Automatic annotation (TrEMBL):
Residues 110-373 form the DNA methylase adenine-specific domain. It comes from the Bacteria. Keywords: DNA-binding, Methyltransferase, Restriction system, S-adenosyl-L-methionine, Transferase. Coiled coil: none annotated. The lineage of its organism: Bacteria, Bacillati, Bacillota, Negativicutes, Selenomonadales. One of its GO terms (biological process) is methylation. It comes from Selenomonas montiformis. GO terms for molecular function: DNA binding; N-methyltransferase activity; site-specific DNA-methyltransferase (adenine-specific) activity. It catalyses: a 2'-deoxyadenosine in DNA + S-adenosyl-L-methionine = an N(6)-methyl-2'-deoxyadenosine in DNA + S-adenosyl-L-homocysteine + H(+). InterPro entries: DNA_Adenine_Mtase, DNA_methylase_A-5, Restrct_endonuc_typeI_TRD_sf, SAM-dependent_MTases_sf. Its EC number is 2.1.1.72. It is an enzyme of class 2 (transferase). The keyword Transmembrane helix does not apply. Pfam families: N6_Mtase. This is site-specific DNA-methyltransferase (adenine-specific).
Amino acid sequence: MLHDELNTLYTTNWHKTASIGIDMLREIGYSSYHYTKLLTALAALAYKTRSTDLSTQIELQKHIDKSITDFATKGFLLGFVQEHWDMILKYSNSANMKELKAVALFFSNGKGGIFPTPDCLSLLAGHLLDITLSDNVLDLCSGDANASINLLRTTESSAITDVEISTDCIIVSNIRSWLLDNPINIKQENVLTMEHDYFKADKVFIHAPFGYRSEFDFSNSQYSMLLNSIPRVDRGDWGFIFSAILCQNDPGRTVAVTSAAPLFRDNRGVQAVREMLVKSGKLEAVITLPSGLYMPYTNVQTHLLVFSNDNTAVRMIDASALGTQSMRVTTLSENDVDSICQAMEEDSDNSKLISHKQLEANQFNLIPASYLHDISATIKNGVPLGKLALSIQRGSTLPSKELQALVSDAPTPYQYLMLQNIQDNRVQKDLPFLKEIDAKNEKFTVSTGDLLISRMPPFKIAVMPDMGKQKVLANGNLFYLRLDSEKIHPVYAMLFLNSNKGIEMLNAFAQGAALVSISRKSLEQVMIPMIPMKEQLELVEKYESLISELTTIEKQAALVRNRIASLMGGED
């Protein structure tokens, strides 16, 4: 059976054979950018030469011409044989047939525009899809067919349809399917514009490019009005997801891989998309996976969206703590996959069923951590920052070129505050000088007592000191909050936010895809434990006394360092 054969090949020690092939390609000047396509061809042709007992170049070319129907794949392989017959023959004798076949089926170096779905993610998707022998299975944005091959290996599926736009990926996919007697039906289409009714399936998997900017309007989708109402930066992400949903039969199930960005952005159009998916009952589950699953996108936080029909709540799962990391790449074990599948069935600290009403109250934010780790509930007498602040502003996003033109070498009445100017929760006094602060940027100047919070972790929190008559322009990577002095002292707020509990809360509210940051709206929801003003002032007094003591120690340390530095000079 195909399932058994693929598992046998998968466990074959084929990596050494792959290295031999790479060395051959390198010797004749090929770049690693093309290794996936070239090594797949080399290994497949070497295998075919052995398995069908072909002893000449002409025999192999005739076999290709007869057995491959796709013109692009046929043309590429015929040309490869014409140019590299001697190398094919040599490689065919460098290893056994199982190793050659395994190299052709499983090798990928993640270059040349061919980014494979991690094997562990394919395994998880197969479990979530619950594929049976009778299911029609569809893999959209299928790349080099590695996900489909892994689904054939780990599920009961015996046939899959792949849809991909890249010709290089189509060629690699066709070669791999050819080696397995064509269990994969490969179609070259644009997933965003294809006729969905032609590709109906019971189980659908999609791993589309993250952050794809769609430069066209959707016209052939029943959701075109909804999709066209959102910014182009998000339109591609949701366009791919909706294409998968439109291909799914009812009953059926879809698993979509996505980054965090589409799941939390505050844009009204994007929120309407999430609302529709929730209220229509299509969204079944959202799963946060550990970062580092991909190369080269090691820092991207990956999520899985599971769709079916008639759901009255959404299962939220945080699996971000699972996995084993090696060489900056994270891998999910079979036990990890089993844990995630179990979390689909039962509540735990990292898995909860969230009602549509709860989702609506949170603007249909689909980040699981927002519902699973409610740190705010542990804050005694907690009051959100939004109710304690008179204003919350972000600093100036002045382009670096304009900023450079404003920098002054001589002292002026104007200075600039950046993240690096905050050290040990204190603002340094020697801020860079500016020639001027124009009327446009006047509103981004900070005042004595403003609470300063960085937008991105690791979070820096400080209180703006008295700078006399100086005007200080805040950088766009900072929020500055003008607090209601009758309710809260800024130093008390700073002390709490710098505590373990405060940092934990800021991290819980921080969201993002490749770059994690906290939004102004999220900052408003951060809870501060309120105590009487008298107690706040007592804490502030103790803090200022300790800071004074620390300043004295730092000055003494500086003097000692200077004396050490002067020892070789013979000075006291």
